[in-house]
Amino acid sequence: MNKPWRFVPAAISHVYWNRKEQFEMKVDTYDEWVLFAVTEGRFRYRIEVAEGVSGFGDIVFCPPKTPFHREAIEPVSFHFYRFRWEPAPSLPNDPLSAEPRPVGNIEIVDRSRLSSNYFYLKQLSGLEDEQQLASIQSLFGDLWHLICRELNRNRVQDEQMLMAARWLQEHASKPLRIRDLAAAIYINPVQLTRRFQAAWGRTPIDYLTSLRIERAKSLLLETDMTLDDIAENCGYENGFYLSRVFTKVVKIAPSRFRKMNRL
């Protein structure tokens, strides 16, 4: 029996910017997911339909290839992370890794713990590279835990939809139909789609697709499996169908993705 899996962020790099009067570019895009964690000052942002003003206690997420509009209102200091999503085994009472992946601003209520995290991050400049990366990963994990708490408190209050998301995580590697999920949690498919969209900001099908595509990415990069074998491990009928879905979502064919991103 396959173990449930989830996706968690893994830091690629970290930079601390101190009292920037203004951003070098008012609009920028990145190849990876990025996170701005403000420690001082404020800046105005717009990412897709999300917009507002971010200050201390705020975490701003921007997906890859997405225009990030930003303008400093006053000198702003912030931690800047580049990160990727990696699969990890689910734990008992797991908070679902705060799926879906956030875009825009998340306000952290636990300011004391956040300040402690920021304090230790600023001490990393004197460490050796390997030691620094390990410390960055550890502190990033703690920061993500705080973010998960906020996302799950603010966005998901429908316990039945928590069950739905967990069910999809547990069954994503198998062929399934949304009506199977509806039957499993004793709800009709129309209500399921409406309530899932309200709880998670996407339809059950989109959520399932995101789980499968991230799983496919990991298998493409970490194994030598054929596309048909990867499709079978991700709940798709065959490699041809997986390739169509992957290319539509990621904007690049699986073979090209493997060639460009494998070490």
TrEMBL record:
Domain of life, source organism: Bacteria
Transmembrane segments: none
Domain (HTH araC/xylS-type) ranges: 162-260
GO molecular function annotation: DNA-binding transcription factor activity; sequence-specific DNA binding
Keywords for the protein's UniProt record, in alphabetical order: DNA-binding, Transcription, Transcription regulation
Record-linked InterPro entries: Homeodomain-like_sf, HTH-like, HTH_AraC, HTH_AraC-typ_CS
PANTHER family the UniProt entry points to: ARAC-FAMILY TRANSCRIPTIONAL REGULATOR, HTH-TYPE TRANSCRIPTIONAL REGULATOR EXSA
Listed name of the protein: HTH araC/xylS-type domain-containing protein
